[in-house]
């Protein structure tokens, strides 16, 4: 079994990175593989809204015309059994790197070809607020709306704050184990 963790954090060792690491430890306890992708380290351009109608081959073919790291990450998601989306919270919203990635993903999933290997795939979201610690719940709302719109089956959204991160790391480790169990048993579909 393989899980892919998509992180919209700029700092793999920051608060969001700590949350991702805790989740990964739980996944590894269940002997599943996990691959981490840090979007800020990748070349992900923003959507160009290719033609006058604001669309392009994303709508007609389910793929993006931009040649960058987007397609290879989508391929990794298609090959995985489950996905973790983790983002720091900025202005009660997802990070800019996560937004650029998901904006393009939701466009390709408007086409049947783009949905292949994505539709109904189990996903979990983590939103980590630093600074004053606010906005994580609102960020979870935005993240869930986007990834469920891409037809992932969202089975949990976990808001974290700077103030409760130590506690949430324990919860995230248990959640990583639970996520693997949900995929193995198919219980998330019930």
How would you explain this protein's 3D organization?
With 190 residues, the chain is an alpha/beta fold. It has a single domain, classed as Flavodoxin domain (Rossmann fold, 3-Layer(aba) Sandwich), CATH 3.40.50. Helix content is 43%, strand content 19%. The chain is built from 7 helices and 5 strands; from the N terminus they run E-H-E-H-H-E-H-H-E-H-E-H. It has a 5-stranded parallel β-sheet, with helices on both faces. Helix 1 runs parallel beside helix 7 (165-185). The longest helix has 21 residues, at 165-185. It is globular, with a radius of gyration of 16 Å. The two termini are 20 Å apart. The model has no long low-confidence stretch (mean pLDDT 96).
Q: Top keywords for this entry?
A:
190 residues; five-stranded parallel sheet; 7 helices; 5 strands
> Biggest β-sheet, characterized?
5 strands, parallel
Please give the radius of gyration in angstroms: 16 Å
Low-confidence stretches: none
Q: Whole-Å distance between the termini?
A: 20 Å
Class from secondary-structure proportions: alpha/beta
In total, the number of domains comes to 1
Kindly report the name of the CATH homologous superfamily: Flavodoxin domain
CATH class: Alpha Beta
Overall mean confidence score, pLDDT = 96
């Amino acid at each position: 079994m393989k899980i892919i963790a998509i992180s919209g954090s700029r700092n793999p060792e920051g608060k969001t990175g700590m949350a991702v690491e805790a989740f990964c430890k739980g996944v590894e306890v269940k002997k599943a593989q996990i691959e981490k992708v840090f979007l800020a380290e990748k070349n992900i351009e923003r959507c160009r809204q290719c033609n006058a109608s604001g669309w392009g081959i994303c709508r007609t073919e389910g793929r993006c015309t931009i040649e960058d790291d987007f397609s290879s990450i989508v391929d990794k998601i298609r090959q995985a059994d489950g996905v973790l989306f983790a983002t720091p919270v900025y202005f009660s919203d997802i990070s800019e790197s996560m937004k650029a990635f998901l904006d393009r993903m939701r466009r390709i999933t408007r086409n049947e070809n783009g949905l292949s290997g994505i539709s109904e795939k189990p996903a979990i979201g983590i939103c980590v607020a630093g600074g004053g610690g606010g906005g994580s719940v609102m960020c979870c709302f935005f993240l869930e709306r986007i990834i469920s719109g891409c037809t992932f089956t969202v089975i949990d959204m976990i808001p974290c704050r700077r103030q409760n991160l130590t506690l949430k790391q324990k919860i995230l480790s248990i959640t990583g184990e639970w996520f693997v169990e949900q995929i193995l048993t198919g219980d998330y579909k019930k």
